[in-house]
Amino acid sequence: TNHLFVVCANVLGGCQGSTGPLSIDPATGQPYGIAFPAVTIRDMVRSQKRLLDHLGARRLRCALGGSMGGMQALQWAIESPDFCDKVLAMATTAREGAQAIAFNEVGRQAILQDPEWHQGNYPKGGGPRVGLAIARMMAHITYLSDASMDRKFGRRTVKARLAAPTPVEPSPADPALLGMMGDEGASASNTAAFDINFEVQSYLRYQGQSFINRFDANTYLYITRAIDGFDLAASYGGTLEHAFAPVKGDTLVIGFTSDWLFPPDHNRDIVLALQRAGKRASYAELATDLGHDSFLLESPELYALVRAFLERRP
């Protein structure tokens, strides 16, 4: 950007730079593992404020994020109303519903029941890789939609794609990517009947494999727990109106019609609560069949909304 300086920090409890379960505990010389304290969305935002103070930032034009990032953006509006001019939250919620919590729990159990978890004590690059891959495979389904999956994969088979003279587009169904389990799973002779048949199977296994090469299992446990525990109303007097009482700047919330993880009504309810609290808030809903991940994908309509909101002076 030529107009604004973007600060994008790895969250507290993460594994891409900020302190988290994979970090070394100076008292033991070993990774914290599950001895790392529980982390909340509020903790993440407060650590970000300390980072900005360290960098010498005097104000934020906008706290912006989608999904868990949207939770953080809302928390910014409450925690630092005099520091943050605007908030833009997308595909988010003021608290998860039971279904989203349930999906996170299944993912955590895939990790916890992996015999390589060892109560969270495993070397970097090791641990419950199969469990983490399965958790990612299942979570990734929640980021998509039935329509987008049907359009992208349908019931197309890997065999048919590989036999095509010129595939329409590259696919993660290439033979080198098919063996997610590697030598960690059962022998090939025992699993031959369950080999990959459909392209969607190949895609999910690829997503699981690529995830375990860049993420940490304990971190997954901590971050999903932070998401599940996020409940603005419960944290601030029992209602969203009470929670949003400190907010001073403009807020824009964007929902997506096909998002079934954090549906449009979750996003709309945030704006209605802000308005009932007497705050300047607006809601936009974009028609898309790309699911929860819509906020991450190229969209001229989304870009136009974001640009107009950022350029509008308080």
How would you sum up this structure in a few lines?
This protein has about 325 residues and is α/β, with parallel strands linked by helices. Helix content is about 45%, strand content about 10%.
Architecture overview:
By secondary structure, this protein is an alpha/beta fold. It has 2 domains: 38-95 and 231-311, 3-Layer(aba) Sandwich (Rossmann fold); 100-222, Rna Polymerase Sigma Factor, Chain: A, CATH 1.10.1740. 43% of the residues lie in helices and 10% in strands. Residues 170-178 and 182-186 have low confidence and may be disordered. The protein has a 4-stranded parallel β-sheet, sandwiched between helices. A two-stranded antiparallel sheet has the order 1-2. The protein has helices at residues 41-55, 68-79, 98-112, 129-143, 146-152, 158-163, 188-191, 199-212, 217-229, 232-235, 240-243, 264-276, 300-311, and strands at 24-25, 30-31, 60-66, 84-90, 250-256, 281-286. The two termini are 20 Å apart.
Task: Give a quick set of tags describing it.
314 residues; alpha/beta; Rossmann fold; Rna Polymerase Sigma Factor, Chain: A; four-stranded parallel beta sheet; two-stranded antiparallel ribbon; 13 helices; 10% strand
Shape: globular
Find the CATH topology of the largest domain.
Rossmann fold
Helix content: 40-55%
Per CATH, the architecture of the largest domain is: 3-Layer(aba) Sandwich
Rg on CA atoms, Å: 21 Å
Element layout with pairings:
Blueprint: E1 24-25, E2 30-31, H1 41-55, E3 60-66, H2 68-79, E4 84-90, H3 98-112, H4 129-143, H5 146-152, H6 158-163, H7 188-191, H8 199-212, H9 217-229, H10 232-235, H11 240-243, E5 250-256, H12 264-276, E6 281-286, H13 300-311
Parallel strand pairs: 3-4, 4-5, 5-6
Antiparallel strand pairs: 1-2
Helix pairs in contact: 1-2, 3-4, 3-9, 4-8
